[in-house]
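Module 6 notes. Inverse folding takes a fixed backbone as the condition and produces residue identities as the prediction. Think of it as a translation problem where the source language is geometry and the target language is the twenty amino acids. Below is one complete input and output pair. Work through it position by position during the lab.
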């Protein structure tokens, strides 16, 4: 998995978890203190969130750390 593929997969995961919790992009953005546009770019895999935003997203959306680590592992394997 390339870095770009990781960003897309991570973004899809964020979007899925947000939808499960029935949050709009606007609500999530407000709750973690970033712009709605930033949420959209993250979900589309255009950009990666900052470390702070990542931690806030993980906390708010109850993201699975094991799943994210697997995505990262696959990403770093393909770039080696």
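Target side of the pair, the amino acids:
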């Amino acid at each position: 998995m390339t870095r770009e593929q990781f960003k897309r997969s991570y973004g899809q995961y964020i979007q899925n978890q947000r939808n499960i919790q029935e949050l709009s992009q606007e609500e999530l953005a407000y709750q973690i203190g970033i712009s709605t546009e930033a949420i959209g770019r993250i979900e589309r895999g255009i950009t990666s969130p900052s470390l702070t935003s990542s931690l806030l997203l993980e906390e708010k959306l109850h993201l699975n750390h094991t799943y994210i680590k697997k995505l990262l592992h696959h990403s770093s394997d393909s770039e080696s």
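Reference fact for the lab report: The radius of gyration is 12 Å.
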